[in-house]
Structure formats: C-alpha cells, structure tokens
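pipeline: protein-struct stage 2 | run 1193 | Helix-turn-helix domain-containing protein
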Amino acid sequence: MASLNVGNLGEYLREQRRNAQLSLRQLADAAGVSNPYLSQIERGLRKPSAEVLQQVAKALRISAETLYVRAGILDAERDRDEAETRAVILADPSLNERQKQVLLQIYESFRKENGFGTGEAAGPARDGDGTADQATGGGSSTDGGGDAAGSDTGAGRRRTAG
C-alpha cells in the first residue's frame, strides 16, 4: 500500500499514544476503531475521517482540532488569521454594528475573489432593521448591487492589472 501524505498525523498520533502510556490495542478499543486500522493510520497508510479523528482525540484526551490540522482537514494558520481579522473588526469601538457587518462582507468578498473564502463565517449582515442588507445589495458579492462594497465592479480590472 502506498503511503498517503498523512505520515505527520500518524507520527503525532503514535507520540500522543505513547505519552498517554497506551498500547495500540488499548487506544483502538477506547476510540472504537479496529487495531489494524489504527496501526495503518499511525504508519501513514490510511487517512481517517474527521469522525474517527474525533474519537481518537477523545480517547487520547487531546484536541480534535489539532488532529484535523495534522490530517489536512483544517488549515490552522489561515483559519486563525481570518478569525483574528474578524475579531478586530468586531471589537473596533469606532464602528457601528452596520459598518462592522458591511466591512465583514467586503472582507469575505475579497477572500472569495482570492480563492480563500468559504462564505460561512461572516453570514448575512443583520442589524435589526435590515439596513446593512440593503447597503450591500442583499449580501451577495456577485449580484452587482453592492454599492457599499463598490469594489466588486472593478474586480476584473484588478486581476488583469496585477
């Protein structure tokens, strides 16, 4: 069996298992997976699902997120940078709620344009009376109605210039 690019995960799991002073069989039993399957994960021959990683993390009493990052399911640095950017915007006392939501939508549209956006984190802008939704053309960065964002109409020009 050819090795998948999950050796780092397997090595890390083996190290954590040994630190917990568990045998391969004990960890497999605690996580509810087969002994051979866990062995293959540790040797980098299998890429486990997020569910299996969660079970193993619980059995080892470590963060499942750490295993997700090592397995390539999450990109920790990019996710952390995005979360920090959003937190700074939301914490800025000089902006009102509508402005914060519009800024988050603009930020998300730029991330999508650059191939990083998921569209899930910012969500639709809501400040109670719907003004943020109207200001951004309903929250869609592709409908051309985002006069508050303004940058969507020049996106094609920016790409060809750079």
